[in-house]
Structure formats: structure tokens, C-alpha cells
Amino acid sequence: MAIRTDVDGNFSIQFPDLMPANLIVTMVGYGADTIYMEEKIDTRLTIELKKITTTLVLNSPIKSNKQFITITTNLTSQL
Q1: pLDDT category of residue 60 using cuts at 50, 70 and 90
Q2: Distance between CA atoms of 14 and 29, rounded to whole angstroms?
Q3: Rounded CA gap, 66 and 35, in Å?
Q4: Which of 12, 23, 39, 79 has the greatest count of CB atoms below 10 A from its CB?
Q5: How would DSSP label each residue in 14-63?
Q6: Is beta strand 30-37 parallel, antiparallel or unpaired with respect to 67-78?
Q7: With a threshold of 0.85, does the pTM exceed it?
Q8: pLDDT computed for residue 8 by the predictor
């Protein structure tokens, strides 16, 4: 079952008939989280996902004055 949130990240779901169940929460640019639900509850949950940080390292040989120079670039992106 896929559920979408509103603009504030709020959502509601129907519990499955058979419990226990896992609630898997994902969002692009964030790590997934799984919440084990033993029984049906009627309460508000707050779920915080961690941002994924990606580091890309490029090693590029560049010819300068007939010598090769290696340039290492670190690109860090927080999504």
C-alpha cells in the first residue's frame, strides 16, 4: 500500500486486518525507516527521517606543461 503525504508531511493509514505489521516510511533524499506495529493504535506518530549525504570524489589527470597533475575534488551534496 502506498500513501502520500500532504504538503506538511501528514498522512493517515488504515491498519491491516492482520497484526503485527511493519510501517515502512521512505522519501527521496532521506533514509528509510521501518516501524514495527504490534497492535492497532489511535494516536499521532512523529517520524523523522535522516538526510542522506553523498560524497563524490573525482580524480582527474590534467596535462599541464607536459606533466600530469592529479586533481581531487570532493563534492558533498545534502539532499
Answers
A1: low
A2: 26
A3: 59
A4: 23
A5: PPPSSSSEEEEEEETTEEEEEEEESS---S-----PPBPEEEEEEEEEEE
A6: unpaired
A7: no
A8: 86
Q: Which residue type is seen at 26?
A: T
38: exposed, middle or buried (Cβ count in 10 Å: 0-12, 13-18, 19+): exposed
Q: Rounded CA gap, 52 and 30, in Å?
A: 5
CB half-sphere exposure, 60, CA atoms < 13 A: 8
Answer yes or no: are the C-beta atoms of 11 and 26 closer than 8 Å. Answer: no
Residue 69 CA from chain centroid, whole number = 36
Give the Cα separation of 76 and 52 in Å (integer). Answer: 11
User: Is residue 29 within 8 Å of 50, Cβ to Cβ?
Assistant: no
What is the C-alpha separation between 73 and 59, in angstroms, rounded?
Answer: 7
